[in-house]
Amino acid sequence: MHHSWRFSVSLFFQLGIFLSCQIVSCLADASPSGLQWELSTLKAEAAHGEETLSLEFSFSNPSSGSIKITAIEAHCGCVQVAHPELPWIIEPGTAQSLPVDLNLRGKQGRFYQEIMVVVGSEQHSLAVDIMIEDPVHRPMSPQERAKNKQQAMKDSKAIFKGQCATCHVVPTQGKYGPSLYEAACGICHDSETRDPDVPDIKAKIKQADRSYWRAWITEGKKGSLMPGFSKKQGGPLSGSQISTLLHYLAAPAAK
Ligand code: HEC
Ligand code: HEC
After folding, report:
1. Are residues 242 and 171 in the same domain?
2. Same-domain pairing of 111 and 80
3. Is 226 a pocket residue for ligand 1 (Cβ < 6 Å)?
4. Do 126 and 149 fall within a single domain?
5. Is any ligand 2 atom within 6 A of the Cβ of residue 170?
6. Which partner from 34, 39, 170, 171 sits 20 to 30 angstroms from 138, CA to CA?
């Protein structure tokens, strides 16, 4: 009887659990640990330039036995987990928290890191999922956008100057092809929140020919919000940058 019970345990659980059963008290290990996490993934947003972020995982032990956390591991030095000395015994019926400090310095976009918590032979995987604000696509107030548009209506080259250039020019520097398109053109044309005066040009990519693209990119259109981007027109793009845009955007030449 006893033998067949052990046999089925070894069938249904990993060998590791079975082996640890030989050494330590068996029942707690052979059943799921019972540790309950309020949220196993913590989501948050960080402002651009914010270098540290502190979050806490909340958890409890609703079971009637104590639970032993034997290891807590993060795979990045940018995640510091503050916990008491291990093993950490979670008494029955108690709630605890696991504080994590994140170092976001130099990080961009999505910051996703996992933290492993070992409870007996189980591994609980926790995660932090942080969106770091992009300074170019930060939220702008309607007033700020209206002011920008007004300035561009007076002079479409305004986007190449002063503060405007931090978003409309600096990100284009040293870029070529698709990533240049994204920084120089997509900022207006592919924005979901763009002004109705900015047309959707996706359908023309690889469809319209070189001369079409060349004319729009180098000259823009007088009296519109679309400036010419060539150096000759007072724009920021070099001839070789423009040639990589043409290669990316224009339909392959007919043979
Ligand atoms: C400041 C925002 C802005 C940026 C940046 C911008 N455009 Fe435009 N673009 C416009 C606007 C506004 C129009 C509409 C002009 C009009 O017809 O009045 C336009 C028109 C166009 C058109 C004509 C589309 C049509 O259907 O008539 C093309 C092609 C185009 N842009 C390509 C580009 C490319 C390529 C880049 C990058 C080198 C770029 N644009 C950068 C605002 C922008
Ligand atoms: C913080 C970055 C940033 C700065 C600074 C900035 N822009 Fe923009 N601009 C954008 C983004 C992003 C868009 C795309 C529209 C959107 O999603 O708000 C845009 C779009 C535009 C458009 C197209 C119309 C529209 O609103 O969709 C014009 C014109 C424009 N900007 C002009 C300017 C001018 C002129 C300045 C300086 C006075 C300026 N921008 C400063 C990020 C910026």
Report:
1. yes
2. yes
3. yes
4. no
5. no
6. 39
